[in-house]
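Before the break, one more example. Copy the sequence into your notebook; we will annotate it together after we see the structure.
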Amino acid sequence: MSLKQNLLDKINSKQIIVGVVGLGYVGLPLAVEKAKAGYKTIGFDVQPSKVEMVNQGINYIGDVVDSELKELVENGMLSATCDFSFVKDADFIAVAVPTPLDQYQQPDISYVRDSTIAVAQYLRKGTMVVLESTTYPGTTEELMLPLLEEGSGLKCGEDFYLAFSPERVDPGNLIYQTKNTPKVVGGVGRDATEVIAAMYRNVLQGEIFEASSPRVAEMEKILENTYRNVNIGLINELAMLCNKMNINIWEVIEAAKTKPFGFTPFYPGPGLGGHCIPLDPYYLSWKAREYGFHTSMIEASMMVNDRMPEYTVERTGKILNKFKKALNGAKVLILGVAYKGDIDDYRESPAIRVIEEFEKAGSEVQYYDPFITEYKEKSHTKKGLPELTAETIQNSDIIVITTNHTKGVDYDFIQQNAKHIFDTKNAMKNVTGRENIELL
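Here is what the structure looks like once it is written out:
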């Protein structure tokens, strides 16, 4: 029986054992969905603390249901380990590890490389390997393929299948989650694409789009997030212009949204956050240089978005100057350090850079976030306020809203007690009595 037919039969009969490398915001939800679909799943992670929590049925990811995780672990459908030798037991391996930027704003693919080397040592014939981490076009074929072949002695397309299928995780999204979000799969060879797409179809409810190659799937993911980066850069630049022209950018967007075609609304803010949108354009720009191509429009939007934290502090300083108050020594209360509303994720959050810029200016900074009581940045930990009292608000020279939480924050209470408010997210749009509120 051919490799293709053998795997298709095992997929349909639920005989596949799944391995997920990386148990973070992408990996753990994926592992849970695979296990829920009836496939015994092994999670791999280099952090013993995560492995221990999973094996105890303790959830640490917002998009995973606590009771589902606990039940899957208790039923033996999901387990976790730091020991990569168990890769030999897996028929399907998904790699979902971080792909950050290094200190020079260039791709750091060390996690992908190290994970691939670890998998290659124990890779056996008849296995499917899928990279889900967002990366530059070419990673799957140029980096992973040779490492897997050299480390295992197996031949891609004959002994194992390899593909790229980008994660599409949107933390806090109540409509689209791992289970029902459409998936793109691009394999090394047509058979790989067909078989791995069949595996995802047996697990997920969303449409599975079969791309012609890993490079198409890799570029597709970069396009998704670069599209958002460029359009957010445009709206951030317009927000700065509208401020100079004394025009409310938020009202402009609401007016433009009434057009039923040809317009998609994007919103300004203090910068970009999260694990994809602020990083992915750098991956593309870095790879483009290999072809002697300069991504001028993309890099221009990146420059605008990267400057927004500094612009937020500059605007705050101008607001305070109207009341004869300097940034140096001002008591600033930051409202929200999560990178988006109603989640506990602060990866690449612009609010953290805003806080750093205020501190550089000599401001006394406190923050409150109902979802994040403390955050670790570089070598230090910053603790938030345990609660937001009238006294704390009244004693602050200005409140700067950097996250539009809809839960755990009483905006009317804040407005009633604050001297001045700079709302960078239009979070207080429904508050009456807006005399002390300025918008981005």
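The mean pLDDT is 94. DSSP finds 14 helices and 15 strands in the chain. Try to locate both features in your own notes.
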